[in-house]
Amino acid sequence: MLLIKNKYTSIWICLFLLSLKMFSQTSRVDSLLMLLPKTSNSIDKVVLLNNISDSYKTIDANKMLLYADQALALAKKIEFKNAEGNALLNKGNANIILGNYAESLKFFSQAQHLFENVEKNDTESEKDWQKLSEVLGLCFQSKVITAKHCNIILSRLQFIKG
């Protein structure tokens, strides 16, 4: 009887801890969503949209894609290349989660092309390059994208970063 009670206690503790983790993730998204209508500056808004999109990564890939689309449209409108690249990375990540691997490769390639054309001495650009490299490394490790595609992209990254 004591073993059964401990088993149920363990299950309840696990469920409680999982609910806390989910609550903390959704509270972050809720906080970011509350800022969205208060943000009037387009640059801040596109950064916020990308952050919201990224925050949905472990919660809802469809919403991640929705906010990435909004960020991409706004970034193109205001010609903010770093935010455009981040939106493309978010779209690529969302498509991996949704199982659309060919589509994700398309977005990662677009992000790579965009980051290639951003000035190399820009600090934000350096962070974006690092983020793209990390994403491609994870794709390569998980075999989401074929080794051939990853090697082509990584060799281009190394050539450009020289």
Q: Detail the poorly predicted runs.
A: none
When the domains are counted, the total is 1
SS elements, strand count: 0
* CATH domain class name: Mainly Alpha
Strand/helix succession: HHHHHHH
Mean pLDDT: 76
Strand content: under 5%
- Quaternary structure annotation: single chain
The CATH topology annotation reads as: Serine Threonine Protein Phosphatase 5, Tetratricopeptide repeat
- Provide the CATH superfamily: Tetratricopeptide repeat domain
Describe what is shown at a glance.
This protein has 162 residues and is mainly alpha-helical. The chain has helices spanning 2-35, 42-55, 61-78, 81-98, 101-116, 123-142, 147-161.
Outline the structure in words.
By secondary structure, the chain is mainly alpha-helical. Helices cover 83% and strands 0% of the residues. It has helices at 2-35, 42-55, 61-78, 81-98, 101-116, 123-142, 147-161. α1 (2-35) packs antiparallel against α2 (42-55), α5 (101-116) runs antiparallel to α6 (123-142) and α5 (101-116) runs parallel beside α7.
List the helices and strands and how they pair.
Blueprint: H1 2-35, H2 42-55, H3 61-78, H4 81-98, H5 101-116, H6 123-142, H7 147-161
Helix pairs in contact: 1-2, 2-3, 2-4, 3-4, 4-5, 4-6, 5-6, 5-7, 6-7
What are its keywords?
7 helices, 162 residues, mainly alpha, 0% strand, 83% helix, Serine Threonine Protein Phosphatase 5, Tetratricopeptide repeat
